[in-house]
Amino acid sequence: MGVTLEFLEQQFYNFFKTEPDVIVKAPGRVNIIGEHTDYNHGYVLPMALEQCTYIVGKKRNDSLLNFYALNTNRQSIADLHYPSRNPIEPWMDYIMGVTHELTKLGYSLLGANGIIFGDVPMACGLSSSASLEMAVLKLFEALYDFTIDDAESAKLGQRVENEFLGLKSGIMDQFISRCGKKGHALFLDCRTLNYELIPIVLHNHSFVIANTNCPRGLTGSKYNDRVAECNEALNTLISFFKKPATHLRDFTLDELLQTKSIMNPIPFRRAYHVLSENNRVLSCIEGLKNGDIQKVGNLLNESDLSLQRDYEVTNNELEIITDIARNIRGCKGARMTGAGFGGCTINLVETTYIEDFVNTLIEKYKNKTGRNASFIISHPSEGAKIVKSLYKPLLTK
Question: CATH code for 205-377?
Answer without folding.
Answer: 3.30.70.890
